[in-house]
Amino acid sequence: MSDDSRPTPASARTAAVIPAAGRGVRLGPGAPKALRALSGTPMLIHAVRALAASRAVSLVVVVAPPDGAAEVKSLLDAHALPDRTDFLVVPGGDSRQESVRLGLDALPPEYDIVLVHDAARPLVPVDTVDAVIEAVREGAPAVVPALPLADTVKEVEPAAVPGDPEPVVATPERARLRAVQTPQGFDRATLVRAHETVEDDVTDDAGMVERLGLTVVAVPGHEEAFKVTRPLDLVLAEAVLARRRLNDGF
After folding, report:
1. What is the DSSP secondary structure assignment for residue 107, as one 8-state letter?
2. Which letter, b or e, does each residue of 3-38 get, where b requires 16 or more Cβ atoms within 10 Å of its Cβ?
3. How many domains are there within the chain?
4. Predicted pLDDT at 47
5. Is residue 36 part of a domain?
6. pLDDT tens-place string over residues 204-221
7. Domain span at residue 122?
8. Helix residue ranges, H only, the chain
9. Is 29 within a domain?
10. Is residue 62 a part of any domain in this protein?
11. Alpha carbon distance 193, 44 (integer Å)
12. What are the E-state strand segments in 120-205?
């Protein structure tokens, strides 16, 4: 772990930032991905409830489309959410990176731990959320939930024309690879510094912390924390919700 690591007090307050400003074009035309319904409830509401299910999370900041903050605020007001958790909606930017930064800017100063969660991962279990928070409290500057890969992975030379055959250039050792999920957890000062320092477009916030030379650690993820990206994912998410209703009686 990095020399900058230090235990975070157990009393440290945790906030979650959910960037939900994207359109989700791979799901096809229609509402933004975060507002697509799962069992009659928008994915965003499922994601907000999933984060708020952790007793450690006392604030959830939803970063809405730049022109959709009022709509998202109305959406949150229309659905039952935990009383112990505060909710805030702020307009986002043109990129996910900018939206996360705007969410960070909206956090009150008393929050020392920040989770960043994809609205398109609506079914993350609370145990995964708590595991990420605990690892930050133990001193990790950045934490990601991750799963081992079931498939062999090939590195290829991308084809100039989509659909053309692609030469394989390497086969990475699968035992050393992980598929990363969210929520990703951070020491707040570290994440703020990463957003102030790293200007390149990166695929996740933990990658920005890596650019600072700090150690990112992985904790076990969960198969139900998958990302709803394509129509088939919606079918799988509905099946998970149906099983939960059967098991939990609601």
Report:
1. S
2. eebeebeeebbbbbbbbbbbebeebeeeebbbbbeb
3. 1
4. 96
5. yes
6. 999 999 999 999 999 999
7. 13-144+180-248
8. 43-52, 69-78, 96-105, 126-137, 188-197, 205-211, 231-248
9. yes
10. yes
11. 28
12. 142-148, 155-156, 168-170, 178-180, 184-187
